[in-house]
Amino acid sequence: MHMNIDCGLRPETPKETSYSQKVWLTAAIVVLIIAVLLIARVVFNVLLMALAGCLIATYFHGLGDLLERKTGLKRRICMFISIVGSISLLVTLLWFMGAKIQVQVAELSNSLPGTINTVKDKLGETPIGQKVLGYFSDNNSKQLFDTARQFFSTSFGALGNLYIILFLGIFFTAEPSLYKNGILLLVPPDRKEVAKRIMDRISFSLKGWIKGTLLAVALITIMLAIGLSVIGIPVALILALIAGMLKIIPNFGSMVAMIPGVLLALTVSTNTAIGVALLYIVSQTIVSNIITPVIQKKMISIPPALTLISQLIMAALSGALGIILAVPLLSMVIIFTDELYVKKINKAQLIPASELDK
User: Fold this and answer.
1) In this model, does residue 212 exceed pLDDT 50?
2) Is pLDDT above 80 for 230?
3) Coil, strand, or helix at residue 331?
4) What pLDDT does residue 152 have?
5) How many C-beta atoms lie closer than 10 Å to residue 185's C-beta?
6) Is residue 21 part of a domain?
7) Coiled-coil region(s) at which residues (predicted)?
């Protein structure tokens, strides 16, 4: 005889989560994801500033190495001369050229609105020009000016952080082994040789980019300053400096730099505008396709389409600073991919199948 004894103990069923609890849980997850993405974007911007500091340190070290080879002085003295001499030279140039630059900036600011109106009047005289003016309707022009304002405000924000980047570069220059050894401490012992090789390749690549960029900036500035002065374009020095500074941005910089020069030339005559446009195109072609590749031979050859894609991505993420650092950052990504993935794949393909089966 079996007796059913019910002691009142029954297995507890899990409580069902209410609808409101599910809503609050989903909202908390969404807020957490947004917070993580915002923090990641801020951290990414800080890492970009650190990369800019590394580029400045690479420049100081390259100039210090050159002084050490040429003079035979101690390395610390050469590095001190490299840092102090570079900053002093920049301040001296700005001091002597500051008055003229200020006058030409004021002249350009005052003449540019009238120049735009003159260009509109001349474009309105031709059917093609009327179509161009129709494209730049109120909505399109407003969107264009908003984009330009956002770009330049981001640029000036990046310039506002220039002193932080400069100090980072000086710190990296003073004690490079401290930071290099600190990075190597985070790498497993069996991968330290690979890490050293990656850092050496990145150093060579960045040096090539810096050499090519500095030479391109100097040559473009000099060529355009002389050419625009000969043609008789006003504020030639400012236009040349703008083109030189924008040269650090591949693809976009050259096109943007040409706009104010051609607009001012149109106030003189159409033939003058064509001559100025040809001057910009020829100078950019000579520097970009002949001189810069010779200097940047230590840098990885990057396809133009890949460069453009990286610039668009970096512009969306970090604005002007991201566009400037897109090429060296892409070069670093390619080096990491080659060392950590491509070489492994190639090495595995060289191993016979009989060895893999063992």
Assistant:
1) yes
2) yes
3) helix
4) 46
5) 8
6) no
7) none
Structural domain contains residue 16? no
Structural domain contains residue 357: no
For residue 249, give the DSSP letter: S
In whole angstroms, give the CA distance from residue 88 to residue 82: 10
* pTM of this structure: 0.68
Residue ranges making up the domain that contains 305: 27-346
Res 201 pLDDT > 70: yes
Q: For residues 113 and 136, what is the distance between their CA atoms, to the nearest angstrom?
A: 16
What residue spans of the chain are helical by DSSP H?
19-71, 75-123, 127-135, 138-160, 162-174, 176-185, 192-231, 236-246, 252-266, 270-286, 292-295, 304-324, 326-337, 343-350, 353-357
What integer pLDDT is reported at residue 356 of this predicted model? Answer: 43
Q: How many CA atoms lie within 13 A of 329 on its CB side?
A: 23
Q: Which residue has the higher pLDDT, 292 or 35?
A: 35
353 domain residue, yes or no: no
User: Amino acid letter at 222?
Assistant: I
What would the pLDDT profile of 93-112 be if each residue is shown by its tens digit?
777 766 666 666 666 666 66
Helices of type H across 124-137 = 127-135
Query: Whole-angstrom Cα distance, residue 261 to residue 13?
Result: 78
Residue with tokens 């993580």: 36
How many whole angstroms separate alpha carbon 270 and alpha carbon 273? 5
Average pLDDT over residues 205-232: 86
Q: In total, how many domains does the chain have?
A: 1
Check residue 13 and give its pLDDT: 45
- The angle, 0 to 180 degrees and rounded to 10, between the axes of the packed helices 162-174 and 176-185 is 80
How many angstroms from the chain centroid is the CA of residue 167? 19
